[in-house]
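Teaching assistant here, posting this on the class forum so everyone can see the example we discussed in section. The complex has two components, and the goal was to see what a joint structure prediction looks like when all of them are supplied at once.
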Amino acid sequence: DIQMTQSPSSLSASLGGKVTITCKASQDINKYIAWYQHKPGKGPRLLIHFTSTLQPGIPSRFSGSGSGRDYSFSISNLEPEDIATYYCLQYDNLYTFGGGTKLEIK
Amino acid sequence: EVQLQQSGPELVKPGASVKISCKTSGYTFTEYTMHWVKQSHGKSLEWIGGINPNNGGTSYNQKFKGKATLTVDKSSSTAYMELRSLTSEDSAVYYCARSYGYDEDFDYWGQGTTLTVSS
């Protein structure tokens, strides 16, 4: 089974700032990684798939990059509505989620 | 508009079974694989398994084999997950989510169903 190590588990940043979350896979996942935003009481929302492809309607403040085992996700120009927990998902071989990153605004 | 509408919260006793539903609309039900995901309180997400509504073919996370059974009703575009022999470890929020095949990400999710197992 592929393991996904996501970090940090939580972070705090200022409005207008930038944050970066990383996910490290236990093996090469061939760029098959997606990033989700999850708010309480709702289903997760797909932001990015195949490492860096934004879903329609997702602002360009969100971005992703990486290859092999190492991937990152960034949010720039932080807005209040970005407060959420973010997860990575590998879908190269079945499905495994990262542990999640809870984002707070300072 | 694509919608996945899940059934309401469940309170069931240990040892019992429960069947959660996910009614879909806004797309062709048989063209997308339906998956189920577990989120235990305060924890991350776990993939339970997926079902191809077109032929009923299933794929399960080894951890949930024997615990979860996935089915569909094509006539009502609804997916179901039955959980059996429930224990407190099964208390969680369960989500349905669709993908365009088994090797694709989950692009739409249901709102989640809270299951509480308690006597």
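For the discussion questions: The interface with chain A takes residues 4, 35, 44-47, 59, 61, 95, 97, 99, 103-112 of chain B (CB under 8 Å). The two ends of chain B are 40 Å apart (CA to CA). Think about how each of these relates to the inputs above.
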